[in-house]
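Entry for zinc ion complex. Fields follow.
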Amino acid sequence: MTGETLPWFALVLLLAVVAIVWALRLTPPRVSAVPADREVCRDEPCEMAWCRECSAHRLSALHADGSHTCLTCLTTTAGDQ
Ligand SMILES: [Zn+2]
């Protein structure tokens, strides 16, 4: 790198940093329209299941061992059904 290109390189670098900062500033904060509990359903099947804590059928994540976790109160119920 010669003495000619160094200032240009620094300028490009500066512009890149400014651009990144602007992009981050302009990016709206990630509003999760989907509640966090829905994240669980990406990895595991979810369906309505009886929750003792809620005393109601709630959307629950079904685990491989047959148990399920209520996505409302996060109580894990043994799969005894
Ligand atoms: Zn529950």
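NOTE: The mean pLDDT is 81.
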